[in-house]
């Protein structure tokens, strides 16, 4: 249960009801963060427009890489809603979600490519407080992704930081988009698997 109640459909104006219909059609449910944003309809419209714009504009990176760094950022922030939603998006895009179980050990896992490991380390550095990005990280990723790809990577990670912190502040937790363990923030396992 979030720290403030979301706007219920029965109490919503026409604009909020339209946003809820779109959410149900696209994702199968009204997104809980949307119900909280509906408390401020102008911000809800701005946020929704921004999200749609980013989705349409973000084409420089392979989709799997963008989704992976967003997922890692959600895990680092401990946003179970974002982890749940991100795993669902990856599953529906046909991406390998089984490897997400090794997200804490990506640096040594054979489930991730060298480029993915560099991008995941960059996501960690961007999400750290204070930010811990190095010149070397930017240079190496820019060489591999180009400047446009580097801007997109950075933007997606920054946006997920905003989403995850918004959700955490309001106590928004997973909504059950995925089944089993995929909807929970993966816990770090010890070397012996416990």
Describe this structure in words.
There is one protein chain. 59% of the residues lie in helices and 0% in strands. The protein is an all-alpha fold. The protein has two domains: 49 residues, no CATH class; 121 residues, AhpD-like. Helix 4 runs antiparallel to helix 5, helix 4 runs parallel beside helix 6 and helix 6 crosses helix 7. The longest helix has 35 residues. The two termini are 30 Å apart. 34% of the residues are buried.
What does the secondary structure layout of this molecule look like, with pairings?
Blueprint lengths: L13 H14 L4 H6 L3 H17 L5 H15 L2 H13 L21 H14 L7 H35 L25
Helix pairs in contact: 4-5, 4-6, 4-7, 6-7
Short recap of the structure:
With 194 residues, the protein is mainly α. The protein is built from 7 helices and no strands.
- Sum up the overall morphology in one term: globular
The CATH architecture assignment of the largest domain turns out to be Up-down Bundle
What is the C-alpha radius of gyration, as a whole number of Å?
A: 17 Å
Helix/strand-derived category reads mainly alpha
- Give me the number of helical elements: 7
Tally of structural domains: 2
Order of helices and strands: HHHHHHH
Largest sheet: none
Assign the CATH class of the largest domain: Mainly Alpha
User: What is the arithmetic mean of pLDDT?
Assistant: 92
Q: Report the count of strand segments.
A: 0
The span between the termini is 30 Å
Strand content: under 5%
Helix fraction, binned, reads: 55-70%
CATH fold-level assignment of the largest domain: AhpD-like
């Amino acid at each position: 249960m979030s720290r403030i109640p979301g706007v219920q459909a029965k109490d919503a104006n026409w604009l909020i009801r339209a946003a809820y219909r779109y959410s149900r059609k696209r994702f199968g449910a009204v997104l809980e963060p949307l119900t909280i944003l509906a408390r401020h309809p102008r911000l809800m419209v701005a946020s929704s427009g921004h999200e749609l714009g980013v989705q349409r504009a973000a084409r420089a990176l392979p989709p799997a890489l963008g989704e992976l760094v967003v997922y890692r950022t959600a895990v680092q922030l401990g946003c179970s809603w974002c982890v749940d939603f991100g795993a669902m998006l990856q599953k529906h895009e046909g991406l390998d979600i089984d490897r997400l179980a090794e997200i804490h050990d990506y640096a040594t896992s054979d489930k991730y490519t060298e480029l993915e490991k560099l991008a995941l380390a960059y996501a960690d550095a961007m999400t750290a407080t204070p930010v811990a990005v190095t010149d070397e990280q930017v240079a190496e990723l820019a060489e591999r992704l180009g400047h446009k790809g580097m801007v997109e990577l950075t933007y997606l990670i920054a946006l997920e930081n905003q989403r995850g912190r918004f959700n955490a502040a309001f106590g928004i937790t997973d909504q059950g988009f995925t089944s089993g363990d995929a909807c929970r923030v993966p816990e770090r396992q010890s070397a012996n698997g416990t």
